[in-house]
Specification:
The chain is mostly helical. It has 4 helices and no strands. Helix 2 runs antiparallel to helix 3 (45-62) and helix 3 packs antiparallel against helix 4 (65-83).
């Protein structure tokens, strides 16, 4: 959301998850932390885009072409989507999740995307 600061509790949790993703020795743990950081940062354009850049770097390191291609697409739409207020609840940011699909939210994360900040999807 342009002009809206990330609340301190969300920023602290996001920073913690991004740091844990960089230092985790296990690939599965790295993805877990990046996914949790994604759930937290979706409403803010720069942190959201930065999260997808980290996901792309991990996908390239793993030589996972499908994930890398999915992350390139997400890097292109993350900032504009966040700036326009569209953030599907719980979406982990992985290429296996559809871009606009909400998913169940882990109960242990602080709220980051209140329902009133999401834009409804346009009618087809």
């Amino acid at each position: 959301m342009i002009g809206r600061k990330m609340p301190t509790a969300v920023r602290v949790a996001y920073t913690r998850e991004m740091s844990a993703a960089r230092t985790a020795a296990d690939i599965t743990a790295r993805w877990h932390h990046l996914e949790r950081a994604h759930i937290l940062c979706r409403p803010w354009p720069w942190p959201h885009t930065r999260n997808h850049i980290e996901m792309l770097a991990l996908a390239v390191a793993q030589r996972d072409r499908r994930e890398a291609l999915g992350q390139v697409l997400r890097i292109l739409v993350a900032g504009p989507g966040s700036a326009l207020g569209y953030c599907p609840e719980g979406n982990t940011g992985r290429a296996t999740d559809p871009l606009t699909a909400p998913t169940p939210v882990p109960p242990t994360r602080p709220p980051s995307c209140p329902a009133d900040s999401r834009r409804p999807r346009p009618a087809a």
